[in-house]
Amino acid sequence: MSSVADFIKIPKTDSCKHLQLGMRYSSFVRWAGFYLPNFSEDKRFPAGSDEDMVFRGELEEFIQDRIGSEHDLLLLLCYAISESVSENVTSLNGTINVDTVSNFKNATEFLDTIKLAAEKYSNKVKVRPFLGINSDKENNLPLANMLLESNLFEGIELYGRKYIENPEKFLSIFKTARKMGIKSRISCFGFKGMKNQEDIFEILLNLRPTHLLNPNIALNNDDLKIFQNGKICDQIFEMQKEHAIYFEFSPAPVLSGNRGEKKAFVIREFAEKGFPFSFCTEDMLFLNKSISEFAADLCNAGVFSENELTDILSR
Fold first, then answer.
1. Using CA atoms in the order 155, 158, 164, 165, what is the torsion angle rounded to 10 degrees?
2. Are 3 and 43 in contact (CB under 8 A)?
3. Chain centre distance of CA 217
4. CB-based contact 290:284 (threshold 8 Å)
5. Are the C-beta atoms of residues 22 and 83 closer than 8 Å to each other?
6. In whole angstroms, what is the distance from residue 142 CA to residue 294 CA?
7. CB 213 within 8 A of CB 16
8. How far is CA 191 from each of CA 31, 157, 209, rounded to the nearest angstrom?
9. Per-residue pLDDT, 258
């Protein structure tokens, strides 16, 4: 049996952490000054389900309402980054929601606060800010484009479900990302309710993201036929080869309780196919699982050996 300590000692990369949800619940309570109603660290809904998406949205709203000053956001980001430092994370892609800028007098205050949080820990971890864009709030796109002009952000992350219904509305922000040479991530939770494999491929071909977060969520949907008998369909392999898509896996699909073990082992299939991938924490606040804990779980479940995980975490 491998222990969490075996993986904490490894200098590692966390390729996707949502900084506003990036700390343990105990740290959140210290920051917020209150307990979240009906919240439990063991309470989880199936990843990408209606309940899960509503729950995530409610958490975002609580946090948005609580941020009343630059200091509030700075302290929130510091809790998330310091949590990563304690895990021996030396490279961190940290997502900050574009909607948070509305809590500030101007965009400069918002951007300066992110810079200050990253600089505070710069001797221990390299923080690369990503700009999070909720596709269910389409009016934030002009603001997102404006913020990207600051050259602070090294990537964008699109999540929610509206990009499934009308991906063309988000073409401009992905074109901007490509023009700037920065990364572009899509959260696959939005794919959960889709019935047609070709529709997903069309979205990916139109938006051309560089990264996909949690593609193993598709195991929940037999209609898509993306994973059959634990194997990845050939179309995924061909698309990755042509468009150089990078895959990221967080504990969320594995912890959802719906085919969790299969979702863990399908990550092995990505490795054996030679796909480039990494692990990430995503949302520590309600997943309550660090990247080292996730690695220990995968090791003890027999998905990867300790040596393989050491290599993966160090990428």
1. -110
2. no
3. 13
4. yes
5. yes
6. 37
7. yes
8. 33, 15, 14
9. 61
Split at pLDDT 50, 70, 90, the class of 131 is very high
Number of H helices, E strands in the chain: 15, 10
**Half-sphere exposure of residue 24: CA atoms within 13 angstroms, side-chain side:** 10
In angstroms, the CA 47 to CA 31 distance is 26
Q: Can you spell out the DSSP letters for 125-137?
A: -EEEEEEEEETT-
In the chain the first and final C-alpha atoms are separated, in Å, by 24
How many CA atoms are closer than 13 Å to the CA of 104, on its beta-carbon side? 18
Q: What is the DSSP string of 136-180?
A: T-GGGHHHHHHHHTTS--SEEEEESSHHHH-GGGGHHHHHHHHHH
Residue 200 main-chain phi, psi, to 5 deg:
-65, -45
Residues 6+ apart with CB under 8 A from 115: 152
Q: What's the mean pLDDT in 139-147? A: 94
Both tokens assigned to 57: 């949205």
Strand-pair category, 277-279 with 89-97: unpaired
Catalogue the long-range contacts made by 29-32 (C-beta closer than 8 Å, 24 or more residues apart).
Answer: 30/79, 31/66, 31/72, 31/75, 31/76, 31/79, 32/62, 32/63, 32/66
pLDDT value at residue 230:
66
Q: Which residue matches tokens 């090791």?
A: 299
Q: How far apart are CA 307 and CA 299, in angstroms?
A: 10
| 305 neighbors 269 (Cβ within 8 angstroms) | no
d(C-alpha 149, C-alpha 158), whole Å: 18
Q: Which residues contact 58 (CB under 8 A, 6 or more apart)?
A: none
Alpha-carbon span 216 to 214, nearest angstrom: 5
Are 110 and 67 in contact, with CB atoms under 8 Å apart? no
Per-residue DSSP letter, 61? H
- Amino acid found at 238: E
Please give the model's pTM, rounded to 2 decimal places.
0.94
- Domains plus CATH for the chain? 4-313 (3.20.20.140)
DSSP 36: P
Query: Looking at residue 220, what is its pLDDT?
Result: 63
